[in-house]
Design brief:
By secondary structure, this protein is of the alpha/beta class. The protein has 13 helices and twelve strands. The strands form two sheets. The protein has a seven-stranded mixed β-sheet, with helices on both faces. Helix 6 (about 175-185) links the parallel strand 6 (about 160-165) and strand 7 (about 190). It is elongated. The protein starts with a helix and ends with a strand.
């Protein structure tokens, strides 16, 4: 009889715990290389994309955001922290961040937002069928985009015939496509020593200037991106107009950029989050390539470099910084 009286009491204690476990909000981890800021346009775009799909942080989903503060070496521990919580998926930015998440878990779904050459870099098997726990979007320029970027650069700097190339060691990009784009415009590429650490950026600019570069093409990479203000300052010091993929370089003081609309990509990443939370497998969700591009121009930098930009170039700009 005593056992029968205890069973309802035990059930009364355990049932609320069972209910809490059953009703736990999905946890979406976000792994970021940068540092938090009060007005992060990319995070705002991602949150808007989630809301459009009925996912609101603190209500229908819980966002677990980790920031590396620009330290690549901090990413593995932060990724492991998200895995240990555990989270139901991890949203990442570029390849370095995605690779850190990939090393931390072979099973938790990962949504990359700005992947570059994900097949060659071992992130997915193919665009149509990623085949692993990673899917998402790429920020991968092809020959046509390389050609347009080089064309815009020489419109801004008509005298330029020798173009330096600023890239980070290990960052995959289609060198053949860049070379072909340059050949079509009768441009000579002058690759600088690839960047391994922040101090190498100054060495790269010195090499480009010494080799006679009249402008530069910024392939970038995580180390270079984090140091984009230094990049812009060195470009001014060495009188080298530059073209980049991200408008963030232009906001930091570089001359111009042409690349994917990263806010649109972060908003689109929310679609992947919703699909995976709904039961879709990342291995079966095709990886999307960019369809929207933006042009940014820094007129202050153009003035400091004594460049008079043609009106047709300014009319293409989606963002002009004065």
């Amino acid at each position: 009889m005593r056992r029968r009286r205890l069973l309802p009491a035990i059930a009364a204690v355990l049932w609320p715990l069972h209910g809490l476990r059953a009703q736990r909000r999905p946890r979406v981890g976000m792994l970021n290389l940068g540092a938090p800021s009060p007005d992060n346009a990319l995070m705002r775009a991602f949150a808007e994309g989630l809301r459009e799909r009925g996912l609101v942080d603190g209500q229908s989903v819980s966002l677990e955001i980790r920031w590396a503060g620009g330290r690549v070496d901090a990413l593995p521990a932060l990724a492991a922290e998200l895995v240990a919580l555990p989270v139901d998926m991890i949203v990442t930015g570029n390849n370095v961040v995605t690779l850190a998440a990939k090393a931390a878990t072979p099973t938790i779904p990962i949504v990359m937002v700005v992947g570059v050459d994900p097949v060659r870099n071992g992130l997915i098997d193919s665009y149509a069928r990623p085949g692993r726990n990673i899917t998402g979007l790429t920020n991968e320029p092809g020959q046509q985009v390389f050609g347009k970027m080089l064309q815009m650069l020489i419109e801004a700097v008509p005298r330029a015939e020798r173009i330096g190339v600023l890239a980070q060691d290990g960052v995959g990009y289609d060198r053949a496509a860049l070379a072909e784009g340059a050949a079509r415009l009768n441009l000579r590429l002058l690759p600088a020593p690839e960047v391994l650490q922040p101090s190498d950026i100054e060495t790269a600019f010195e090499a480009m200037r010494r080799d006679g570069a009249q402008a530069y093409f910024g392939i970038g990479g995580t180390i270079i991106y984090v140091a984009r203000e230094q990049v812009a300052a060195l470009a001014l010091r060495h009188r080298l107009p530059g073209m980049h993929f991200s408008a963030d370089y232009v906001r930091a003081g570089a001359l111009m950029s042409y690349g994917t609309d990263q806010q649109a990509q972060y908003r689109r990443a929310a679609w992947y989050v919703a699909r995976i939370l709904g039961g879709a497998k990342p291995a079966e969700l095709p990886v999307e390539q960019p369809t929207r591009f933006e042009t940014a121009i820094n007129l202050r930098t153009a003035s400091l470099l004594e460049l008079k930009l043609p009106q047709r170039l300014l009319l293409q700009a989606t963002e002009v910084i004065e």
